[in-house]
Amino acid sequence: MRNSRPIITGNKGVVSAGHYLAAEAGIKMLAKNGNAVDAGVAAGFALAVLKPNENSLGGECPILIYSPDDNKVYAISGQGVAPQKADIGWFKDKNIDMIPGDGYLGATVPGLFGAYCTALKQFGCLSLSDVLEPAVKLAEEGFPVFENLRNTIAGNFEKYTKEWHSTGDVFLPDGIIPNAGQILKQPALAETFKRLIDAEKAYSGECRKQAIENAVKYFYDKIADDILDFTNSFPVKDATGEYQTPLFDKDDFLRYETRIESPISVSYKNHEVFKCDTWTQGAVFLQQLKLLEGYPLDKMKHNASEYIHTVIECAKLAFADREIYYGDPLFGNIPLDKLFSKEYNDTKRKLIDLAKANNNKLWEEDFTGSDKNYIGDTTHLDTMDNEGFMMSATPSGGWIPTSPVIPGIGFPLGTRGQMFNLRENHANCIRPGKRPRATLTPTIAFKEGKPWMAFGTPGGDMQDQWALQFFLNLVDFGMDLQQAIDKPSFHTCHFVNSFYPRNVDIGKVFIEPGIETDELIDLQTKGHILHLLTDGNNGQVCAVRRNPETGTIEGAASSKGDGQAYAMGW
Fold first, then answer.
1. What is the spatial distance between Cα 69 and Cα 301, in angstroms, rounded to a whole number?
2. Quick check: 199 and 184 in contact, CB under 8 A?
3. Pairing of strands 183-184, 8-10
4. pTM of the entire structure?
5. What residues does CATH 1.10.246.130 cover in the chain?
6. Nearest to 99 by CA among 398, 413, 349, 419
7. Residue 296 CB contacts under 8 Å (≥ 6 apart), including other chains
8. Cα–Cα distance between 550 and 270 in angstroms, integer?
9. Which residue, 68, 70, 234, 240, is the most exposed by fewest CB within 10 angstroms?
10. What is the dihedral of CA 343, 346, 348, 353, to 10 degrees?
11. CA–CA separation, 535 vs 308, rounded Å?
């Protein structure tokens, strides 16, 4: 099968991002003598303009960065925290047993802006005004609407015209759904960026880092005032059926700090894979690897029933552990040493029947919610440069279908708090100042002890299934970067969904076209309930890596999803 796109190569650097104009924004930073982190931050801010249905300044963004200066990988916690008023008692008093996925109750302190600025301060070399330049231009002068964004706007037309007029003012020019290809401008968002640039420039000293910090303080002070003024005066009806205002107050914003943390990692064959800690689902990728290393995947036929069955059954066990154990590690001891240990995984592997699907209930709670709610998507970006810097980031949240655009600043709040559990003593139970266990999960990998690759994908709970298959395609099946992305993928939803209303698809396996019919029949014989997808459904993997044979930097991006992801090199 011919690759859907060429592998992009570069000597100076490569950017792979969820929109081609975001990849261009990153390349422009390399032309300014910036590094991969400058490029990644510029691409990220551009994505916040280009994909408002997938991320915004009101959302969140976990980041992994490899620094050649000290040969270390760092995790930046771009996930905001629950307000001080948000505790289990508050929700119980309101007879709410599940945090809705729309409105304000699931809003955490916006973490995306702080995360990008922290990356820029600590690992970049350009100014905030430099990296915001492409985003300002895109917001001020506009960009062509793509089909998926147009469909999101069209699907919410009634809401935007009857309830959320502030969103309609931006995304329904002249009250009309924009056509694909029509130029869309976001003047209020452009003005917000300019205010943040002015805050950076207001610092009178010579320190670049302190000037960026000035902008961060401005965001969590003055921009926070704009957020609170609007949301406290404009209650929103959510899935509870009630009109609500946020649980925030100003102190929640002022006390918020972006954390730089150590990542978690495991080895797989001659690779080491790094993830953010259990305030994300990243450990589930690592648990799958430790289970799968007990099977000779490289001896199996790729995407044969034997291979798919093995991967799916390991995923079920890993995701069951995710539901039991994962949560913000600042609020409890997460037993990762046990979960990654050989003894634990040897024992777990005995639960897998290679001839029969395990469709038993692997979770404690019963989730029978049938409410339909917007399950927002996500985007992704990866960068690498010739100095050796790597950045992998998965921005999401602050979606235009789930919360109204705030007038004057041009973006909505996020709803990531819907992923909290409302059971007392659960690892992911809501607590003031706590991070919800997010699905967002960037990845960095080493090969034979050397920095090798950054990659990831949007896709909610499925991110660490699709990205895992991409990784295995490279490591166990020897594919090239684009081929590994293009191959048909599959996933299970035999676990508790992270998004409201927390449904479970018992026994189902979702499969893209391209798997041989005999293999599908054999999977059904094993007890899997197959759901055959149309082409190009599963994710939008982006990746950059150092080719160990040529020394050049390679990048690739999936043509799946909305088709906007591209890699660019220089």
1. 41
2. no
3. unpaired
4. 0.97
5. 264-364+441-560
6. 419
7. none
8. 19
9. 70
10. -170
11. 18
Looking only at the bridges linking them, the beta strands covering 553-557 and 542-546 are: antiparallel
The torsion angles phi and psi of 544, rounded to 5 degrees, stand at -135, 145
Run of H or E including 474: helix 463-475
Best CA proximity match to 293, nearest among 320, 275, 271: 271
Task: Please answer whether residues 492 and 315 qualify as being in contact, where contact means their C-beta atoms are separated by less than 8 angstroms.
Answer: yes
CA distance 215 to 271: 39
Residue 77 near residue 114 (C-beta atoms within 8 A): no
Task: Please give the backbone phi and psi of residue 568, each rounded to the nearest 5 degrees, phi first.
Answer: -135, 145
C-alpha 194/C-alpha 213 separation (Å) is 15
Strands 13-17 and 508-511: unpaired
Residue 117, CA distances (Å) to 60, 112, 213, 368 in order: 13, 9, 8, 41
Give the pair of three-digit tokens for residue 322.
């995710």
Residue-wise burial string across 430-462, b where 16 or more C-beta atoms lie within 10 A, e elsewhere: bbebbbbbbbbbbbbbbbeeebbbbbbbbbbbb
What is the C-alpha separation between 286 and 474, in angstroms, rounded? 16
- 8 Å CB contact between 4 and 488: no
3-state helix, strand, coil in the chain (%, to 5): 40, 15, 45
Q: What is the pLDDT of residue 369?
A: 47
Distances from the Cα of 223 to the Cα of 40, 110, 435, angstroms: 23, 11, 21
| pLDDT given at position 366 | 62
Cβ neighbours of 46 (radius 10 Å): 31
For 278, 283, 291, 300, 515, the CA distances from 310, given in Å and listed in that order, are 25, 19, 10, 10, 15
CB 319 within 8 A of CB 495: yes
Query: Which amino acid would we find at residue 538?
Result: N
Tokens 């702080």 sit on residue: 114
State residue 272 phi and psi, 5-degree precision: -125, 130
The reported pLDDT for the residue numbered 375 is 54
The DSSP symbol for 67 reads E
Non-local (6+) Cβ contacts of 261 within 8 A are 74, 75, 76, 77, 276, 277
CA angle 152, 153, 155 (to 5 degrees): 65
Q: Are 499 and 373 in contact (CB under 8 A)?
A: yes
Q: Mean pLDDT of successive 10-residue segments in the chain (570 residues)?
A: 92 98 98 98 99 98 98 98 97 96 98 98 98 98 98 98 98 97 98 98 93 98 98 97 97 98 98 98 98 98 98 98 98 98 98 97 68 69 98 98 98 98 96 98 98 98 98 98 98 96 95 97 98 94 94 96 97
For the domain made up of 264-364+441-560, the CATH class stated in words is mainly alpha
The runs of H, that is alpha helices, within 182-281 are 187-201, 208-218, 224-233, 250-254
- Element housing 508 (H / E): strand 508-511
- β 183-184/143-144 pair status: antiparallel
Peptide bond into 501 cis (omega under 30): yes
